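Researcher: Good morning. I'm working through a list of sequences from a screen, and I'd like to move beyond sequence-only analysis. For each chain I'm collecting a predicted structure so we can compare shapes side by side. This is the next one on the list. No need for commentary yet; just the structure.
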Amino acid sequence: MASTYLELAFEKQIHEKERQLSALEAHISETPDAREAIRTLRATIQNELRELYENLNPSDVVKVARHSARPQALDYIELVFDEFVELHGDRAFGDDRAMITGFAKLEDQKVLVVGQHKGRTIKEREERFFGCAHPEGYRKALEKMKLAAKFRLPIICLIDTPGAYPGIGAEERGQASSIAVNLRDLSLLRTPMVCVVIGEGGSGGALGIGVGDHIAMLQFAYYSVISPEGCAGILWKTRDARNVDQAARALKFTSADLLRMGIVDEVIKEPLGGAHRDHRQMAATLKDSLQKALRKLSVIQTETLLTRRYQKFRKIGVYEERAVEELTATEKPATEKTEKAKSDDPAKNNGSNGKTGK
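Model: Good morning. Structure tokens for this chain:
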């Protein structure tokens, strides 16, 4: 089990039982009673974890997605891929360390890997801007993706960011336009693209490398236009727990919500208790998912691939469009009926004629 640097509040009772289990296992005892106590406690922990994680509310999902021990892009690169060679720079300003790009092998398949990495220690997180990329990071990603497309190499994007970097320098260097250019150009890349939200999928910062043919997300990741804290701050001018929880429920950003709405194509199941509890198992599951997705995409003609990719993102928001169409269809007969009633009313017609005569 991976080390859990952060004990989530809703896991408090489970952590207490895990400490009891560690204490029992530390005592060297081969008595039947001791072995039975250990087996019973392990089973209890497993059952409680399963029940807890099957009923997480959206606010708790956000906490799991942000867990400090959750595997990040570099962890997956080490565990899933072979022969990774990192590529640096955007040919214009510099090398954004929040955005990782490089060629690698997925078994025998050569691929380009693009990922957002937050870092572990305070120093590393500062160096990597907590996973928030600057314009040069998005330009860097696009340049490397175009290089991959030139050689028809599939592209795999690992998304994990609270959002694009919000600093003055980033805005001065064209943060919004850099993301917009990526959205346009990624939709036209003539190579298969698989995007996976592995933790936080925050707003345009995530979408800047999130235009692909197969969109997946881990079971306890979230993908949203805004964080629940940001939403609560805008709507209620406060970020207290009640408002944040209400915002989280309203945003519908969990994997189950997004799969149901057709925004993502696949939800990748996490190990019991979340990816932070077993990095290797999570990496093995992710690897299997990536291989299956690439096999399916590899047999599709390029023009069909581009058409499907474009239509996939054009369809997002279809529910709102349908609502407008239905409203228009409902109002039209009512309007026609009102106009007909007016034209059939003799009093109104006479009154109107008399007024005109005067």
